Amino acid sequence: MKKNSYLLSCLAIAVSSACHAEVLTYPDPLGSSQSDFGGTGLLQMPNARIAPEGEFSVNYRDNDQYRFYSTSVALFPWLEGTIRYTDVRTRKYSQWEDFSGDQSYKDKSFDFKLRLWEEGYWLPQVAFGKRDIAGTGLFDGEYLVASKQAGPFDFTLGMAWGYAGNAGNITNPFCRVSDKYCHRAESHDAGD
User: Fold this and answer.
1) Which residue from 65, 119, 159, 185 could staple onto 125, CB 3.0 to 4.6 Å apart?
2) Domains of the chain: which residue ranges?
């Protein structure tokens, strides 16, 4: 009996020494996701993350109101650009029904995100972005955002003006640069 328990103990030690415990680690940094508008972000909210330099993505998003087609590229570690084409299903192409037919409103635009500083041990990554440059102005807006990774979590906090900050309760600091940032167009119908 002692011999069997001795052999069983030796076998258990041999098997357990072959097993390795693995430390739970998280990728550093976590991979970035693409937002509904294209470019890195969370659903319709941008974050301060920039895709790895040279990363090219093609995106398609579809919901009840919009159909988004976008292409994003991280040109530098600190700059990301997006070209977007949007089919707005809730609006006709023109204010004149006979002219529009079944055609819905379309918006073409360009966005960029510029990293202001990189994430450190204590400080978050901070970025500034502009949406709908040279478009119809339907999604026109600016934002300032900070993101900080803590273990497997990536926290984001930011402020936005224009479409992204559509509550309109914070005065846009760019009003000092140009009045167009203070008074956005209310209507984006063709022919107005």
Assistant:
1) 119
2) 30-181
CA 147 to CA 157: how far, in whole Å?
A: 7
Place of tokens 């990728």: 27
Q: What's the pLDDT at 98?
A: 72
3-state secondary structure 112-142: EEEEEECCCCCCCEEEEEEEEECCCCCCCEE
Q: In angstroms, what CA-CA distances link 54 with 74, 76, 109, 147?
A: 5, 7, 21, 21
Q: What was the pLDDT predicted at 191?
A: 40
Q: What are phi and psi of 4, to 5 degrees?
A: -65, -40
Geometric angle at alpha carbon 57, from 140 and 26, rounded to 5°? 105
Predicted structure pTM score: 0.70
Strand partners, 34: 40
User: In 151-174, which positions are buried (b, 16+ CB within 10 angstroms) versus exposed (e)?
Assistant: eeebebebebbbbbbeeeeeebee
